[in-house]
């Protein structure tokens, strides 16, 4: 039997000097209502049950003894808004936690969000919903944002951070989908498959073998040996290809792959070059006129990474001169905002029609990671991140927030509370916390900072209800406080 104390309070960023104690009504109820402070029955103490399918990350820490699910709020009162038809796996996972989940298939406008977001403790979105500064200003109860997608451009990360709201995404759940697409493109390019198919659709029979090749024995050059590049390496070797890779980091090769000393060495030797680097100042225009000329004559280029990595006008030149025998491109410097005819034109990207005219060119609309499996993996990963943050205070994987975690409080530990304290990263902040909790038995404590925001987790044992009340009240009034939550 464990006592449950659940609360949080946030200090508005506009008045950092005036902490303005703002406890939501649910917290006040817990503070005032002795019934809310009584022990939970065993049936009420829900064991976290991550889905058994897919590669769900366990919420518990391996090797720990029976971790206790901590309760940030009364379970009935945790409201989660899921917009844009996020995966059903995530919806089910969050409902299984006992949260109230409001599931919507569409996105909401800024005005609609401002009107309604005040009711929710967590929100899940994909790429269409914009979470702006104004939306965050209205999100009085919001603790966490889950972006059920790769990017987080649609979220004002700074505004979220200023209010102590953690933002999670899923940057790597679609790695396999991209790697598999590249394998398909390797076959299509080496067999001129899309051109033959296009001819047949127009009634033309053109049975040729000239300049059509097997992949077996060919050298694949992978630029960027991260999540996608390394998966591709394994798949390509299973097709009988040889693999060389170039990366700024010295990375352990998988299988029989070998790391090239330079990009030039890779370009000089490879029959196929596939790009898998992130968008960084150093990777912008990484493959331009010079690098294309360093590629073997008759080789192929594949770009499923970012549109800015390749100078596509230079690539059109290299295709027209037949120096490059074909290419597959999935990402572009400028991409249409929505699906529709006549949206990928020279007005958008001035070289578009030049690429469209060339033989053996595969152009796809940024679908590298777009599979049902990737969506489902994203749902599980982001759903788990939301649960871990709400239930345990763990911010591992957050994009706008210091990444902090503590080993779990186990079932056998009673009268233990976890403090989740988001604060301004300023001198004296941790000292002020330690002055409040230092006289108690602090079992474990950790803190980290990211730019202006710092996050402290601490577990304190042997505390009475009065102690908890006192700690909560004093922490919430510290000068650096952005948000204080207590879990038990
Ligand atoms: N087409 C799509 O739909 C799609 C889907 C997912 C990811 N992506 C993109 O694919 C790219 C790779 O994704 P990932 O998940 O494998 O990333 P990752 O971070 O796991 O790996 C990137 C690798 O590139 C290396 N790298 C960084 N700068 C480099 C440089 N200048 N030269 C050589 N290597 C460098 C890094 O060290 C790292 O090993 C990203 O740009 C991502 O946005 C596209």
UniProtKB/TrEMBL annotation:
One of the record's GO molecular function terms: phosphoglycerate dehydrogenase activity
Compositionally biased residues, Polar residues: 1-18
Location of the region described as Disordered in the Swiss-Prot/TrEMBL record: 1-21
Pathway: Amino-acid biosynthesis
Annotated SUPFAM superfamilies: ACT-like (SSF55021), Formate/glycerate dehydrogenase catalytic domain-like (SSF52283), NAD(P)-binding Rossmann-fold domains (SSF51735)
Annotated keywords: NAD, Oxidoreductase
All copies of domain D-isomer specific 2-hydroxyacid dehydrogenase catalytic, residue ranges: 80-400
Chain ranges of the D-isomer specific 2-hydroxyacid dehydrogenase NAD-binding domain: 186-368
Pfam families the record matches: 2-Hacid_dh, 2-Hacid_dh_C
GO terms for biological process, alphabetical: L-serine biosynthetic process
Keyword rRNA processing among record annotations: no
Family: Belongs to the D-isomer specific 2-hydroxyacid dehydrogenase family.
Name of this protein: Phosphoglycerate dehydrogenase
Organism of derivation: Malassezia yamatoensis
